[in-house]
Amino acid sequence: MFEVLIVVAFIIAGIVLYAAGKPSEFQIQRSLAIKASPEKLFALIADLKQAQTWSAWEKVDPGMQRSYSEQTGGVGAHYTWKGNREVGEGSITVVETIPFHKVGWQLDFIKPFKGQSRVEFNLTPSGEDTVVTHTMRGSNSLIPKIMCILFFNQDKMIGGKFEEGLANLKKLAEP
Question: What are the phi and psi torsion angles at 37 (to 5°)?
Fold first, then answer.
């Protein structure tokens, strides 16, 4: 029995040490070419109410409580949500817009873990298409790093939602 406890303690210590050695900073990025103008795509991304029409996270909890600032588009626009365990609770604030080229959001999570991330959408014309690149940057403290090691792949989970959202945006924007 004592030997089992020692082995368990070593396993736990190993996981903690391994997680502590992982980089705190992360970046998740996905891109998709969409046959639509940067102007049309910018309007769908820069307005937080429009973003609700294509965001993959909106479908995870259709009963999610949402609240918008009076201004829903452009710098200063703000959106809060409170949902089930999967979507948690937090807010998005538009912090940067370069018309038809870039939209930047500040993403603040309250639940399940407190955290802040910077989200960017870059729009790059390419022939008849516009390449939309969705990027999220942030940092993980020790507990989220342990959760990523033991339970889920952060890039695959969030990146998969980015891919789904970009596909929804494509369906909405293309003729």
Answer: -75, 155
Q: How far is Cα 47 from Cα 45, in angstroms, rounded to an integer?
A: 6
Total-model pTM: 0.84
Convert the pLDDT of each residue in 24-81 to its tens digit: 777 889 999 999 999 999 999 999 999 989 999 888 888 899 999 999 999 999 999 9
Q: What residues have CB less than 8 Å from 143, skipping those under 6 apart?
A: 113
End-to-end alpha-carbon separation of the chain, Å?
Answer: 67
Distance CA 106, CA 120 (A): 9
Q: Give CA–CA dist 2/8, Å, rounded.
A: 10
Q: 42, 100 in Cβ contact below 8 A?
A: yes
Helix (H, G, I), strand (E, B) or coil at 87: coil
Cis peptide before 23 (omega within 30 of 0): no
Could you tell me if 162 and 30 are in contact, meaning their C-beta atoms sit under 8 angstroms apart?
yes
Rg of the chain taking only CA atoms, in angstroms: 19
Residue 70 has phi, psi (to 5 degrees) of -55, -40
As a whole number of angstroms, the distance between CA 170 and CA 162 comes to 12
Task: Round to whole Å and give the CA distance between 111 and 90.
Answer: 7
d(CA 29, CA 131): 13
Pair of tokens at residue 4: 């089992």
